[in-house]
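Page 42, continued from yesterday. The earlier attempt failed because a stray header line got pasted into the input along with the sequence. Redoing it now with the clean sequence only.
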Amino acid sequence: MIVDIQQDSKESGIEAGKKAALLIKEAIKTNGSANIILATGSSQFETLSQLVIEKNIEWNKVTMFHLDEYIGLPVTHKASFRKYLKERFLDKVPNLKSVNLINGECDPEEECTCLSELIRKNPIDVALVGIGENGHLAFNDPPADFDTEEPYIIVNLDEECRQQQVNEGWFQLIRDVPKQAISMSVKQIMSAKQIICSVPDIRKAKAVKDTLEQKVSNLYPASILQNHPDCYLFLEKSSASLLSNRGS
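This time it went through. Structure tokens are written below.
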């Protein structure tokens, strides 16, 4: 794992976005196309802002998959990740080859089956992800399922995860946060050829420390990234503040 520590979240996001653009362009050059995963939430604000202004990306050769989405949340809700991706990414880039968003308003089991079939046919080149305050990867809260072979699964959201969504302003009260979501599985994320993980904010400092310094365990879901052969972790001073070794 390559760890990059910048002064603030904007600088970290710029570097992550630049790296994502480079890897996407390399995949297109090598394969003629690129398959990517996009995450959402506050951790991706600066990364996506940079990615959409990068030059010379042949977006018409890019297939996008969506990392996770709440079950039962309308696409019009401000916390909808479909809404997030449309406003922060899809409306800002030329037409992609294919867009595969998660519809949390239909039958979740059928949606998992459909998306799983699609992603199996499109091996992922570049995955953009974040880490939750409880160390979750996508919506795989601890103890995460490290074993399932299914690309998309239905998950229960723990209280810490749901409280984070309130703290970030996506919901007013914890009772408003859905208790279930459709999430890309840990194995599916780890199958990506390259992973870019953006983690700003002091709130994530403990999760970052656990990710890098704990033994790989489903109690610290993002710690599995230690096992990935080509992962880039973009931090800033506050999110890296608890690391024993803060060198980049």
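Notes: The beta strands are 2-6, 34-38, 62-66, 68-70, 98-100, 126-129, 152-156, 180-184, 194-199, 231-236.
Reminder to self: strip header lines before submitting.
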